[in-house]
Amino acid sequence: MRYVIVIAAIAFLLIWDGMYNQGRYLDTTVRELSRIVRYATGKV
Q1: Structure confidence at residue 44 as a pLDDT band (50, 70, 90)
Q2: Hey, CA dihedral for 22, 24, 29, 35, is it positive or negative?
Q3: Judging by beta carbons within 10 Å of its beta carbon (0-12, 13-18, 19+), is residue 3 exposed, middle or buried?
Q4: Averaged over 7-13, what is the pLDDT?
Q5: How far is the CA of 43 from the CAs of 35, 36, 37, 38, in angstroms?
Q6: Distance between CA atoms of 20 and 39, rounded to whole angstroms?
Q7: What angle is formed at CA 11 by the lines to CA 14 and CA 24, rounded to 5 degrees?
């Protein structure tokens, strides 16, 4: 049941971000995650 709630919350946030913010928060999150991965792996 916990997983269903988590998946529903993530889906709700993605839909909300896409409808009202043109995906701005998702875009920022993806950029930061890729930057962190590059930093962690040493590929600058």
Answers
A1: low
A2: positive
A3: exposed
A4: 94
A5: 10, 10, 9, 5
A6: 31
A7: 5
Cα–Cα distance measured from residue 28 to residue 22, given in angstroms and rounded to the nearest whole number: 12
Q: Please report, to the nearest 10 degrees, the dihedral formed by the alpha carbons of residues 8, 12, 15, 19 taken in order.
A: 170
CA 27 to chain CA mean position, Å: 7
pTM for this prediction: 0.60
Identify the sign of the CA torsion 2, 5, 8, 36. Answer: negative
Q: Helices 24-41 and 2-20, interaxial angle, to 10°?
A: 110
pLDDT digits 0-9 by tens, 14-35: 999 988 888 888 899 999 999 9
